[in-house]
Design the sequence.
């Protein structure tokens, strides 16, 4: 009796195993046939969590770009399918997501992740799998030094700092005080601010930090004021810089205040209120698309993107979604005629020239996998609660 | 000299806020021997409820102030009733873990209600900053310091002059003995929770105009408040006040004379030193007894 029972069980197990085997087998056979009909592009963004202000518009923009591509007949007649995973801004989840994209979904290219730490975590995987990855994060370390399979569309700190210093030089500012947030974004900005100062004949007279959640920066500003700078540069993301803006007004500090592109959103003006008046900051052109002169090559691209985005989602466009939109458009161009061959796509990416996108005009080369020039940033001034282009 | 004065002003403003938070920690600890790690979250709730009442619904400030305090105190009451009182084996470590859980829960709820963005509020009154010997003093800072001192003096009077205050003190000394003499000890514990969370709300409200309010602002403030309470001697009213002010001033001076990168480190190193040489805090439990 007992033996029969165990025999029964054995038979059952064998059946189950055979069935699973069959399933795996069919899916293995089916997968390539399926892939021939469409190209799968993977997306990996911080759709929720602290960096959702980046990831959410990026996801929407990627879907928007894919929809557009498919409406126009796809790439070489093949439809584009997007598979998007959420990293929650967590490097571990980003690694898991990318491994799913590569192994399970068969993505031939990947767009994202949204932040620098998550990108740094997944870059080695893209390299190993020899799959092109276009990051939407700003950190310089992503493309410096150049890794063959990694590209990025977001403007880097180098350009933002250059834009600020160029503006200072024109205004005859020679001494600056720095106030940077003590996290990766602030550190990277601080590094660049110190490094590039010499080239513009600018001297850093005081260098201070603040914590991302600090409630009051008057002590740091007092110290900066005592060093008597011609201008103050604050480098951080909301809400810290808004507190700095308030504190500067409260302490009656008269020298101009510069902020980073990290606060280039209407939210900053809302938070800082009257204290935002007169602040200078570099920003991608999307924020001031309407104010750009008609001669600007990006103007039509920007207006089109803003129009489509607001039509589809009925929410105001964000300054960050453009990174994913550009990445998709650039990929689409690189994938044309490549027949889904990853090495060919990479080659096409690296030689792409004069692609006019939302974040700037891209000219990729072997040495430059970001491809943007200083014209990707414009300086704006906050005036009457709105942005004004600085000539 | 002018700078030193400015550092002092900045330090006293922050310090007064730490003090109010520390007093909240302290008074709850003295009645229940419980460290409420969700206290910072009640500070955050105070700030955000004020954002809604005063900022969005335009309720007049004094009314909004009282309503917010009452509203957050009510949440403290619910917290005690549902999360603390119902625990079958109220072992201290279990209760502490419950408060940690509650803080995560409250942060999540606040994120759903108010979203992830920060909010700002105008100062309580719209005068220009005062100029004193070359240093600027914000009117809001005056508000903060005055309200904090009033609160602490009020509490002092409450403990010394009212029967309820004395009953609470008795409960703090021995719950069982208080219960035997006819003091409703359970009610006193509840009252301690309500008052402590109410104090937290006040701290949140007075700080709201000088900083940005968001769902995740409470954690660090709670930690600093806890630090201040330990510094002064947890369980002591005046100790918490002194600890808070000292922590704020030390932070500001640390920024001014050492480095802003070491701002938090300066404060915490001092805390370690003081705890090493005076484990009971500056005004230790031994000298001051409980309140």
Sequence:
């Amino acid at each position: 009796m007992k033996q029969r029972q165990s025999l029964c069980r054995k038979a059952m197990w064998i059946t189950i195993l055979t069935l699973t085997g069959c399933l795996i087998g069919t899916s293995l056979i089916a997968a390539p046939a399926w892939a021939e009909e469409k190209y799968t592009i993977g997306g990996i963004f911080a759709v929720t969590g602290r960096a959702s202000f980046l990831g959410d518009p990026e996801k929407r923009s990627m879907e928007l770009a894919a929809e557009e591509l498919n409406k126009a007949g796809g790439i070489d007649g093949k439809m584009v399918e997007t598979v998007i995973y959420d990293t929650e801004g967590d490097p571990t989840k980003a690694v898991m997501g990318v491994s799913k994209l590569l192994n399970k979904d068969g993505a031939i290219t990947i767009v994202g992740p949204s932040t620098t730490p998550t990108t740094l975590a997944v870059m080695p995987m893209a390299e190993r799998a020899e799959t092109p990855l276009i990051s939407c994060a700003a950190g310089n370390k992503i493309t410096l030094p150049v890794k063959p399979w990694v590209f990025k569309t977001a403007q880097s700190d180098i350009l933002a700092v250059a834009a600020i210093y160029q503006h200072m030089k024109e205004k005859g500012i020679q001494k600056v005080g720095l106030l940077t947030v003590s996290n990766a974004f602030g550190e990277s900005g601080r590094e660049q601010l110190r490094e590039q100062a010499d080239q513009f004949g600018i001297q850093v007279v005081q260098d201070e930090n603040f914590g991302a959640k600090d409630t009051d920066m008057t002590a740091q500003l007092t110290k900066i004021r005592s060093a008597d700078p011609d201008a103050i540069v604050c480098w951080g993301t909301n809400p810290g810089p808004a507190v700095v803006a308030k504190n500067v007004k409260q302490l009656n500090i008269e020298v101009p205040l510069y902020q980073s592109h990290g606060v280039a959103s209407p939210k900053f003006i809302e938070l800082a209120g009257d204290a935002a008046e007169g602040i200078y900051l570099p920003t991608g052109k999307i924020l001031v698309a309407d104010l750009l002169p008609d001669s600007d090559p990006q103007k039509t691209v920007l207006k089109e993107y803003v129009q489509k985005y607001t039509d589809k989602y009925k929410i105001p466009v964000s300054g960050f979604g453009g990174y994913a939109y550009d990445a998709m458009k650039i990929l689409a161009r690189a994938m044309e005629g490549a027949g889904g061959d990853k090495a060919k796509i990479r080659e096409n990416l690296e030689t792409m020239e004069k692609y006019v996108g939302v974040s700037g005009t891209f000219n990729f080369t072997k040495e430059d996998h970001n491809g943007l020039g200083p014209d990707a940033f414009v300086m704006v001034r906050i005036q009457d609660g709105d942005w004004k282009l600085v000539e | 000299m002018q700078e030193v004065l400015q550092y002092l002003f900045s330090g006293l403003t922050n310090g007064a806020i730490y003090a109010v938070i520390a007093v909240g920690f302290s008074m709850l600890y003295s009645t229940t021997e419980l460290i409420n790690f969700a206290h910072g979250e009640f500070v955050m709730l105070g700030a955000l409820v004020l954002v809604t009442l005063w900022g969005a619904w335009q309720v007049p400030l004094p009314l909004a102030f009282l309503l917010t305090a009452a509203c957050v105190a009510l949440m403290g009451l619910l917290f005690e009733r549902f999360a603390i009182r119902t625990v079958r084996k109220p072992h201290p470590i279990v209760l502490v873990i419950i408060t940690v859980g509650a803080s995560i829960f409250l942060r999540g709820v606040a994120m759903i209600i108010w979203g992830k963005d920060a909010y700002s509020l105008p100062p309580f009154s719209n005068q220009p900053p005062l100029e004193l010997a070359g240093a600027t003093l914000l009117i809001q800072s005056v508000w903060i310091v005055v309200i904090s001192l009033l609160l602490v003096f009020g509490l002092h009077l409450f403990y010394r002059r009212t029967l309820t205050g004395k009953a609470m003190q008795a409960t703090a000394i021995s719950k069982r003995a208080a219960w035997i003499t006819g003091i409703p000890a359970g009610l006193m514990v509840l009252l301690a929770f309500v008052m402590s969370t109410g104090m937290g709300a006040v701290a949140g409200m007075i700080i709201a105009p000088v900083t940005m309010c968001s769902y995740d602002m409470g954690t660090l403030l709670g930690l600093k408040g806890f630090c201040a309470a330990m510094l002064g001697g947890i369980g002591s009213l005046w100790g918490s006040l002194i600890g808070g002010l000292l922590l704020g001033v030390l932070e500001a001076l640390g920024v001014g004379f050492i480095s802003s990168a070491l701002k938090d480190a300066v404060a915490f190193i001092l805390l370690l030193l003081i705890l090493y040489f005076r484990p009971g805090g500056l005004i230790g439990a031994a000298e001051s007894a409980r309140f």
